[in-house]
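Lab notebook, bench 4. We co-purified these components, and the gel suggests they stay together. Before we commit to crystallization screens, I want a quick structural picture of the whole thing.
Request: model the full complex, all chains together.
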Amino acid sequence: MTDREPIQSVDIVIDEELPEVGDSKKKAGGFDLEINSGYDMLFYPGTEISWSLEATRIFGGIEVEGFIRGGLSLECYRCLESYRFQVDGHIREHVICLDSHEDKEREADRGEYHIEGGVFDLLQVIRDAVGLSLPIKRLCTLDCRGLCGVCGRNLNTGSCECLTVEVDARLKPLEALREKLENAKLEDER
Ligand SMILES: [Zn+2]
Ligand SMILES: [Zn+2]
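Here is the predicted assembly.
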């Protein structure tokens, strides 16, 4: 897709950038997102999605607050065409500073964000915020007609020869239900 190098991390060096409790630092940037499968994401330098985060040093860690905003391309599950999806997420996370190895193992288990070696990678919270913003069902439109199971044609762009067979098969259960309801109604009226 591209020959650019993905962004590996967006580090904040705690003792340098936030030396005292109460210190704040704002960072912002942008990226283009490539989603390979499921939630596997690569971030490239770009402008599709912008982010802005303010990190504030607190006792025992930092607090990170900000947003991600923009649009990205997703692939529709049904028709496999790509479509635009708007992302607009608020971020507010608590990152703890871990001193000992013991702490580290315990907290890693709990899946919390933590500062390691005096550095925190903001890309972690950005990645999670993007992941949470993604729709569970990736559909270009709610009534996307998908691909024909027989010939593979995108049925949003027109019908194919096999369409009638397909539709009949799909409507059969509905047909049975309709008959059942009608019969029940007749029973009631009797
Ligand atoms: Zn679709
Ligand atoms: Zn077909």
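Residues 148, 150-151, 153, 160, 162 surround zinc ion (ligand 2) (CB under 6 Å). Worth comparing against the SEC data before the next meeting. The longest strand covers residues 82-97.
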